[in-house]
Amino acid sequence: MVETQFSPELLDEIIVECDLASGGAYTTVGTYDHDELIQMVTKLAEKTNTSADDLVFAFGEHLAGRLATLFPSFFDESKSMFEFMKSLDNHIHVEVQKLYPDAALPKFSFDDTDPSCLIMEYQSPRGFSTLAHGLMQGVVKYYNEAITIKPEHISGNSHVRFHLTKT
Q1: What's the CA gap between 121 and 110, in Å, rounded?
Q2: How far is CA 109 from the centre of its chain?
């Protein structure tokens, strides 16, 4: 995302200026400390005069688009955003866990008693609810649905109740 929305040079600057245990070398099969992502987002925020939350949200939207491109079957199996979101823990995260056994994935629970509203509980000790919110917004765009997403922070960014409402 940084390469395409900013520049490859800026990405290189950020990697060099951060103290990254990995040295900034990443592969699709590796598992990395989430603190590296936080360091790089913080540095990008400084260099672009953009809030870290806005960057993380934008990354979530970008990531949803990349996932739809790289793993279209996950998206094709669902007919709507609500259906897709409810498949995360029981389908997509199962597959992620197979590829990355050490991955610490967030947990979700759902209340779908009202067909026009999905209440989704997000819980993760990493506190990436802003990333989750951006991902959800990207999924809304993918399915081209009119849905508003309102976060209700229960415990900081580690436990958030998202209200997804059809408009």
Answers
A1: 6
A2: 16
Flag whether pLDDT at 91 surpasses 90.
no
Task: Say how far apart CA 143 and CA 135 lie, in whole Å.
Answer: 13
Identify whether 42 is part of a domain: yes
Question: How many separate domains does the chain show?
Answer: 1
Q: Considering the domain boundaries, does residue 12 fall inside one?
A: yes
Predicted pLDDT of residue 23:
87
Measured distance CA(125)–CA(18) in Å, rounded:
23
- Tell me how far apart the alpha carbons of residues 40 and 16 are, in angstroms, rounded to a whole number: 10
Listing DSSP states for 74-122 in one string gives HHHT-SSHHHHHHTIIIIIHHHHHHH-TT----EEEEE-SSTTEEEEEE
On whether residue 151 sits in a domain, the answer given is no
Range of the domain at 22: 1-50
In a domain, 21, yes or no: yes
DSSP reduced 3-state for 151: strand
Tell me the pLDDT tens digit for each residue of 24-76.
888 877 778 888 999 999 999 999 999 999 999 999 999 999 989 988 988 99
Question: Do residues 120 and 82 touch, judged by C-beta distance below 8 A?
Answer: no
If phi > 0 it is left, if psi is from -120 to 50 it is alpha, else beta; for residue 49 that is: left
